[in-house]
Amino acid sequence: MAVVALFVLLVAAVSASNEIRLKHVVVKIDYAGENFFIDEDQIEETIFDLGYSIDSTLLRDINPGNLEHLLENNAFIQEAEVYAELNGDLHLDVKARKPVVRVFNDLGISVYIDHEGSIMPLSSKFTARVPVANGNITLMLHQYIGKNISELAKLTDHPDVEVLVDIYTVAQTCSKSKFWSSQINQLYVNRDKEIELIPRVGDHHILIGHSNDLDKKLNKLKYFYAEGLDKTGWNEYKVINLKYANQVVCTKS
Fold this sequence. Notes:
Blueprint: H1 2-17, E1 24-30, H2 40-48, H3 64-72, E2 77-84, E3 89-96, E4 99-104, E5 110-114, E6 119-120, E7 132-135, H4 152-155, H5 160-175, H6 178-183, E8 184-189, E9 195-199, E10 205-209, H7 214-232, E11 237-241, E12 249-252
Parallel strand pairs: 1-3, 4-7, 7-8, 10-11
Antiparallel strand pairs: 2-3, 4-5, 5-6, 8-9, 9-10, 11-12
């Protein structure tokens, strides 16, 4: 009898849970710092645009996996988790993308690249405070929004693909360092398709070439800052060239 009673209770509970209606949409956004590209209203609209409605839609008719996929198709969202509770709450937890650089081509068209290498559009709601990359870049960047830097070589044979890989690598590396994220204000692509860094402090350009051996180059520069520029002055040189192994070549102002 006890087993039969338990079975009846379980069936009743399952039946009742199948009739739970949507009561609230609870949105939680991890802005990954201060990247306010999206807001709660926009996330909620994703639900209601599908025809779901409060006190009407049954939770069993909402597919969390499909909603997660839909949210993650948003260029400003890195990942999403969707789940429902028995009280009728539907939770939408999303993590915003974190841009590390804004890249302009020679026509002034710009996009963001996030910390994972994804190409992001601009937002009318928010402008990220990140370094700017510009100069001799001709690729129509906006055509690749939603793609990852690592995919570009398969999508186009444009020579700027390697340049964008360099830009992303440098910007991502600098973003991980409190010192370099404070010091580097701009990445400039010169006529040779090499990267020059424009610092916030000091009237000089830093020629790093390409992104190979980047950690060694930055460590070399940091040592030169401490042992060289602190003694001669930060405006002593016009160009600091880090392209060559085991040496720093400087051009005076």
